[in-house]
Amino acid sequence: MPLPTPPSPISVLEKSKQLAAWTAVDQHVRPEHRVRIAMLCSTVPYVVERIVQLGAEANQERVFIPTGFQSKELIVSSGLSLGDVDQFPTIDVTLDGADEVDTQLNCIKGGGACHLREKVLAEAADTFILVADYRKNVQYLGTNFTPGIPIEVVPFAYAKVLQNLHHILGSPKASLRMAVKKAGPVVSDNGNFIIDAPFDQETMKTPYTIMAQIKMLTGVVEVGVFCNMAKAAYFGNEDGSVTIRWNDGRVDQVAAPRPQ
């Protein structure tokens, strides 16, 4: 009988993402919390991993709310209780990833076309925490995440919204997001289309302004820019350490664990 294959060691970057997620859980999942949320991103499996390590007794009265199918499967497979925002419109703490986060903790989300539900659940939380890797830690949004601002639109209005973006709001390269493995546009879980709208750096220096302008376009359902929402952001670094940015301007560092 062949011996089982040992698990592959994870990279330093993955270790740092794991440390960022574990630190966020340790600092923000309180014993008194009964409703919290797990979402889909590359760091959320580490968030769930740490929550499971708290033990069945600590989690037995807690409810976890997903944003999509994959995060739902992760919660269920981990033996955690599944809930929905319809049941729990107020959430203790939301732990989520981001496509990019600036120095003011504004962030872009929507690379996975889930930003409508993600924003609803972020707004429902008493505390909103971001967990990501160092590539998402930027001075201005749009630095590394180049596809642009994700915009969910109702299908019959997409052409009109594109025209507004091209000729009024200053995003001439805004385009409908197309599916990779099938013909046609990406369709969100809500049955809507997604537009990706890149803007110049000067515009992205004031993300709230452009978010509000896009949101005012008739046909737009939600904009993948989150402003003035996060309390802290945890970034896993290349060297295995973690940088923590707080909404009051503080920056903390957590050293990488020493090799054993």
TrEMBL record:
Q: Does the keyword Transit peptide apply?
A: no
Tell me the Pfam families matching this sequence: Rib_5-P_isom_A
The record's Gene Ontology biological-process terms are: D-ribose metabolic process; pentose-phosphate shunt, non-oxidative branch
Q: What class of enzyme is it?
A: isomerase
Q: Name one GO molecular function term.
A: ribose-5-phosphate isomerase activity
Q: Which InterPro entries match?
A: NagB/RpiA_transferase-like (IPR037171), Ribose5P_isomerase_type_A (IPR004788)
- State which Enzyme Commission number(s) the record gives: 5.3.1.6
Recorded metabolic or biological pathway in which this protein acts: Carbohydrate degradation; pentose phosphate pathway; D-ribose 5-phosphate from D-ribulose 5-phosphate (non-oxidative stage): step 1/1
One GO term describing the cellular component? cytoplasm
Q: Which reaction does it catalyse?
A: aldehydo-D-ribose 5-phosphate = D-ribulose 5-phosphate
Identify its protein family: Belongs to the ribose 5-phosphate isomerase family.
The protein here is known as: Ribose-5-phosphate isomerase
Q: What species is this protein from? A: Mycena pura
